[in-house]
Amino acid sequence: MKYILIPFFLFMLLLSAGCGSPVSSGRRLEPVSMARPPRPEVTMLHRFYARGDSLYLFLRFEDVRQVLAVSQTAKSLYYSVRAGATERDAVLATDSVNIAKAGQVEGQGVLVPLTLPLRLVQEPNVLHLQLWQHLSAGERLQTKYRLPLQAAMGEKHFIVMQSASNRPLLQDYTTTTTPLLLQKYGPEAGLLEMQRFEADFTPALPPMSARQEVVPRTISVAETKTVVPGDTFYLQTPGLYLLAPGSKFAAGILAQPNAFPLVTMASELLPPLIYLTTTAEREALLRETDPKAAVDRFWLKLAGDKSKARELIRTYYGRVETANKLYTSHKAGWATDRGMIYIIYGIPSDVSHVGNTESWIYRDSETSPYVKFVFTKKENNFTGNHYELIRRPEYEESWYSTVAKWRAGITKM
Known about the structure:
By secondary structure, the protein is an alpha+beta fold. It has helices spanning about 10-15, 70-75, 100, 280-285, 290-305, 305-325, 335-345, 395-405; strands at about 40-50, 55-65, 75-80, 90-100, 105, 110-115, 125-135, 140-150, 160, 165-170, 175, 180-185, 190-195, 220-225, 230-235, 240-245, 250-255, 350-355, 355-360, 370-375, 385-390. The longest helix has 22 residues, at about 305-325.
């Protein structure tokens, strides 16, 4: 196995003040092209509400790696409610959905509605799902999902819709200019309380950091409003919103300006560079009056020519946008632990889940050795998408080496 060795002491000298990397020298590491066969990763987002004696579920399936257009390949969804999380547990109910008839196309993904009797929605029951996709040459792809059921789900009688499409808001974020619609059911069909909090959370610390992210146990309510069911409303002020606070299924939404999760404004280019830059470089960039020109000069200096600089920019900010889509929680996806690792290391070779832990493995390549990151799901009043990295000192060499490759113009790792 051939590795690229980086002088470790040099990085420690220049990076001790921040979480970036040193300025690259005149000699550049040449990228080694490693063709990896693309593998789909079909995720499932869900929202629900209870009405009468039924639980109404909305499931959205999409390949986050954009290898497959799930809207075209997904054909059927088989599901069963079992008395537990394993396939050995007793089947309480089973059925299937013809996606060609019942599914709704959403870009490259598909939205599938599902209805369960509330009598089955209780612990320890689990909803088991199997999505079948038909690929070319007669191949079929099966993806399995599990959704634990809780009796308290029957107490959630509202859902937030996107007003323009009249479809559920499935992600944990929206923009300050997106019109939303509250639909409320059940006996208490009156106004819904909504609280706003400031979302001034710090970006993720490096994976080897001994410091812990400073997160207060409680954050203060900045504003309280009420939402009228059936009326269009906007989350006009950027921040973290909580609908139905105090209820068992309060809904958190992060409202961001501009075209989030996309990066479209010059001011949005600077913050994600914290993972590549030294403290001195960041301070210099922030002093610039023209952030777009400053960022262009930064990447051109690293790349050495415009063509490679454009490639670096496309790759880096493409990963920032993907991180925003996948890992946004109470803060933007790029600033989370999983977002940081995704931006710097790219798509993991393997992802596995055991209980409340999520493990990412990056296998040996021509330019990088094996590394494994483990994230633990943390309780959060605003979202179920908050995971924290288990930080370890031994990540130090891998982190500095990978950042150095970025700064040498290498993106294919």
